[in-house]
């Protein structure tokens, strides 16, 4: 018996950035339509402008409800939010109107996913400044998704092929990391990684955890968090049956990451520790899988790229990889 392809809701991100054009290009790709039913969530006027930028000559099918959706032809189904008049924004510039559209569209997508109307979500590239201009305190998708789902935590797992790295903290000043880290947070990160890997079809995931300090503190000479926080959290995870090890010194943990990753996922302690290794070897193919909540949701590993927006130069491949990863993680 054939299973239905998952319906993946895709928000376009900031209307003045590259999100709309890469979303439009990805959604009409036979490669994407082969793995899911892509549903764009956003303003139809923004999508039409994006199709012009991408030189895509296909009709748009505006929807007022999901019952009108149809993927049998070449038209692009869009759940019209009517909340972002492109004429009221300047292409390539942050604005409160653009930030408000980002916030409203992801709210709608989360609500639809929680109501089981869609199987997963791809969140388009945002600009934090735009969303904050709209009066919404916004430090990125993970904390917002945690808030919208009532989850205590949400983490950003960066994925490129077999490389998967998740940080226990994200957009936090380096001086505050050691203050925020605790055993429950590190354990929750490990557990979220375990759940995400199993969703991706890895039945017995192997997870490595990095230390915080140089040389993992070197017997307390350079810090004690490895012994008081990270190590105990790893032991708690082992008691739950998780195949996890560490803490390992971060300066050598990621050796061979591109050619032959030694683990199915790596847990880092702060933003740059998680981002530098994968961005060094796979900058153009990164997906941000948001884990730790009940939803399947991911975003592209880049921003709204205002400097090339509307010029037809944006590469849709990262968006396509993001949609594929979400479709792979979904239960239809």
Would you give an account of this structure?
The chain has a twelve-stranded mixed beta sheet with strand order 3-4-2-1-5-12-11-6-7-10-8-9, with helices on both faces. The chain contains twelve helices and twelve strands. α1 packs across α12 and α8 (183-199) crosses α9 (225-239). It has 332 residues and is an alpha/beta fold. It folds into two domains: 1-151 and 293-332, Isopropylmalate Dehydrogenase; 154-285, 3-Layer(aba) Sandwich (Isopropylmalate Dehydrogenase), CATH 3.40.718.10.
Low-confidence regions? none
CATH structural class of the largest domain: Alpha Beta
- Strand fraction equals 15-25%
Please give the share of residues in helix.
Answer: 25-40%
Radius of gyration, whole Å: 20 Å
């Amino acid at each position: 018996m054939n299973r239905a392809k998952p319906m993946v809701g895709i928000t376009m991100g900031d209307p003045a950035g590259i999100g709309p054009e890469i979303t439009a290009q990805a959604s009409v790709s036979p490669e994407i339509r082969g793995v899911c039913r892509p549903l764009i969530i956003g303003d139809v006027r923004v999508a039409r402008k994006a199709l012009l930028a991408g030189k895509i000559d296909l009709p748009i099918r505006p929807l007022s409800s999901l019952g009108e959706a149809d993927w049998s032809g070449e038209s692009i189904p869009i759940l019209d939010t009517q909340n972002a008049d492109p004429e009221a924004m300047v292409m390539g510039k942050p604005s409160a109107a653009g930030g408000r559209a980002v916030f409203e569209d992801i709210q709608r997508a989360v609500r639809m996913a929680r109501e089981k109307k869609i199987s997963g979500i791809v969140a388009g590239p945002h600009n934090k400044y735009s969303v904050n201009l709209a009066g919404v305190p916004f430090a990125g998708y993970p904390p917002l998704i945690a808030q919208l789902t009532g989850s205590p935590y949400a983490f950003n797992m960066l994925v490129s092929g077999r490389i998967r790295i998740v940080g226990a903290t994200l957009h936090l000043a380096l001086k505050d990391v050691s203050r925020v880290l605790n055993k429950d947070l590190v354990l929750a990160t490990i557990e979220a990684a375990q759940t995400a890997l199993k969703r991706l079809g890895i039945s017995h995931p192997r997870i490595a955890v990095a230390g915080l300090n140089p040389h993992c503190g070197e017997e307390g000479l350079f810090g004690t968090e490895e012994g008081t926080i990270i190590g105990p959290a790893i032991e708690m995870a082992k008691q739950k049956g998780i195949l996890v090890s560490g803490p390992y010194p971060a300066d050598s943990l990621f050796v061979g990451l591109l050619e032959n990753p030694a683990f199915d996922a790596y847990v880092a302690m702060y933003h740059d520790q998680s981002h530098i290794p994968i961005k060094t070897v796979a900058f153009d193919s990164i997906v941000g899988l948001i884990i730790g909540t009940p939803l399947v949701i991911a975003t592209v590993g880049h921003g709204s790229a205002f400097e090339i927006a509307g010029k037809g130069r944006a590469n849709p491949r990262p968006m396509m990889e993001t949609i594929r990863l979400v479709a792979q993680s979904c239960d239809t």
